[in-house]
Amino acid sequence: MRGRAIARMLGAVIAAGACGCSFDASGVAGGGADASITPPIDAPQMVADAPRPPPPPDANLPPPIDARPPDITGVAHAQHMGGGINVDGDLSDWDGAKWYAFSASDPGAHLIKKAASYSPSVSVQFAARWSSSTLYFAFQITDDQLIIDSTALWNDDSVEIYLDPDNDGSGPYATDDHWIVFSPDSMCGRFDPGAAVTVTCAAGSPGGSNWFTEGSVDFSSLGISSMSGKHLGFGVGANDDDGITSNGANYDGYTAWYYAPGPGCSTCCPSDPAGEEVCDTTRPGELVPDP
Ligand SMILES: [Ca+2]
Ligand SMILES: [Ca+2]
Ligand SMILES: [Ca+2]
Ligand SMILES: [Ca+2]
After folding, report:
1. CA of 245 to the centre of ligand 4 (A)
2. CATH number of the domain residue 253 falls in
3. With a threshold of 0.85, does the pTM exceed it?
4. Is there a single domain that holds both residue 93 and residue 11?
């Protein structure tokens, strides 16, 4: 189940609504290889760039913010919003946000299919903002079938984020690295082995099988004091349950907004040789602040 052991499943799910709950989760456990998973197809390829000489050292410059150079194709900008966002399932306070989009049917999408017969059929728009104390995220999901019938949030229609606050991209999840899932029924939870995070969420639907949600994560629970000057390791994924696998017991397709090419961490995801952002921090992109 692409690195997601059942041991993670319970206990870390909270009913959200803007409750500001803090919660903990059981640790990540490895599992046996899942032969039913089709390897990712057409992982995006880096375009080689001509090597450039490093700039001369400048004693007046601050040290690099992080160890990993930003990749323009994997960088999302979070806009500053002094008054913050009201996490109430009403996206009107996201007017003017900078939205990013990805789809399971994008050419070259990093797509993992749990069900061999899965037809790529989910697309996501997301945006991020930050205030003096909080990171906010909003998601708008277009889907052909909305399915919520499992205990584990990722086995239903859901979206998820990956946060590596110190952006070291070191591979295995450390205590500060987080995998947070948001569901269409205003549930959200963290399923990484690290320290607890404070997360809230509230979802809604414009009709049909489409849905949206917004959520918040407190800086203090991420070990940061501000987004100013920060580059966070950051990724977004979407789980699409279309009722195929075990009549909806499992997700049917997963796709990521950005999946860093390269060998990844060979030992981070024992149940998924390809490596996944839920267990390998070398895969996500970055979240950077707009002033
Ligand atoms: Ca709102
Ligand atoms: Ca679908
Ligand atoms: Ca399900
Ligand atoms: Ca679905």
Report:
1. 12
2. 2.60.40.1190
3. no
4. no
**Is 130 part of any domain?**
yes
Pairwise pLDDT comparison (7 vs 98), residue with the higher score: 98
If you count them, how many residues does the chain have? 291
Using only C-alpha atoms, the chain has a radius of gyration, in whole angstroms, of 18
Longest dimension (CA), the chain: 61
Identity at 248, one-letter amino acid code: G
Strand-pairing partners, residue 236, are: 161
Task: From 167, 165, 43, select the one nearest 111 (Cα to Cα).
Answer: 43
Domain contains 103: yes
Paired sense of beta strands 75-80 and 285-290, if any: parallel
* Per-residue confidence (pLDDT) for residue 21, from 0 to 100: 38
Residue 80 lies in a domain: yes
Task: Specify whether 86 is located in the same domain as 36.
Answer: no
Does a structural domain hold residue 262? Answer: yes
Q: Which residue has the tokens 């606050």?
A: 165
CA of 242 to the centre of ligand 2 (A): 5
Distance (Å) from CA 87 to ligand 1 centroid: 5
Question: H or E stretch including 128?
Answer: strand 122-130
The type of residue at 90 is D
Range of the domain at 44: 1-48
Q: Give tens-digit pLDDT for 26-49.
A: 333 333 334 444 444 443 344 444
